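Weekend entry, working from home. Most of the wet-lab plans are on hold until the incubator is repaired, so I used the time to fold the two sequences that have been sitting in the queue since the last round of cloning. Logging both here for the record. First:
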Amino acid sequence: MTSRHAHDDTRWGFGPACGPAGPHDHAAPSTPVPESSDLPQTLDTAVTALTELKDATVSFTVEPDPESVTAARHFAVSRLIEWGAPELADDVGLVVSELVTNALRHSGGTSRGRSGDDVHREGVYDDPADPLGSAPSAIRLRLTREPPWLLCGILDASRSAPRRREPDYIAETGRGLHLVESFSERWGWRALPQGKVVWALFRSS
């Protein structure tokens, strides 16, 4: 599965862009996406850093209300501007909106604590050994950057695989993962002891 942004770059060793390995290019309605496997070592390490709040990863706590989608998108876009990568704002903002919406819809959609910039120094919200803060249905947005790459992840308390449906271009919903696939270099998901992370990789120009 190759996105519209195919590149080959060895900075993080990610190589050609593709989605999670598995025979789901022509998935039937509501087909679970296989868990990402055989990732390049540097990408695997980056996903681990994302979940454990290493390497200057920043985190945002998603509140259980529809306005959280907008708040999460604004958080991501403001970080991109701070990091000098405003050209990624549209793509990352769209993908963050889709992934947060999916997490709120399918994971129970509640969160303990406050929204805002819960950076790694605030361990009460972001304990590396407890990435969801012991909140039964917490949702976190995480961002980490190693130019020219940006890695985005949504952590939630559900271990169920994301489900991919054939898009209905008339319906208002059901196109989320297709949009994630189209606007990122590569994406996937990983099971965690207390849930999962769905991640997406972007490359700045």
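Second, folded right after the first finished:
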Amino acid sequence: MLETFGEYMYYLLSTPFKQVRKVGNQWYIYFKITGRLFDENKTMLRRVREEGMVKTASPRMLPEHGLDRKLTRYEGETWENFRVRLMMYADTCRLGGTEVGTLQAVRSLGFTDVEMVPAYELEGSREHWAEFYVILSRDIDDSFDIGHDIIRREVRRVKKVSGLDRYRFLYRIQDARLEECIRPHNILIRAEVRWYNNNILNGEHNNDGSIHHDNVIGNHLPYLHIRSRMEENEEGRLTCTTWHHWRIHDGSTYNDGAKHMDAQVIEEEI
């Protein structure tokens, strides 16, 4: 098999020129030397062709292609993402101001599962009629190399001028085993209950005359505030902190310093 240009040229010679052995054949020596130059030129021409196209250009050449499109590689962006963004630049500009163009700008950053939803569909209100959400979905284990500021910058470069962009990120958990899904979790619940409709001296108000410190007992629902947090833990404990005997202004005592305006705090483990 002929692999070099010199061997190919020597192969084209007629038989009389090949009677002399290759070691002393001047035609073979000539084609071997000149063929090496042609092989080097062929390699350089092929490299020029590859470097001239964004799809096959090396990372060193990609910034040069970016100069023609006024694009630069973001900090932390992979070279392949930058390559895709360069290849999609023309279509992104052509579709600027449309939903398709906005989605394509986000996909050029490496996000494959992305959609745009009007804000009123998610919020159920027409108050934010000009706003839209860019929803990006990805696996929980995927690396996140692109900053939120970069995503926002690319979207605002091609989005509709009258639209205000908002963002929502959805992370999927796949292949979860059943025992991990049903593993029990501890739930921390903090509840604050007020059984009387009166102003408690707990530091929430100032004694400046703006409110009346009277006690009105009524049949009303208690105020209940619950805040929950879930975390994985093999052990569990339940504690209860109770404040008893708040000092209230019901006329039973005098503000003469004989009693402290505090409550009895009891903390116990259940």
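Plan for Monday: verify the second prediction. The radius of gyration is 38 Å.
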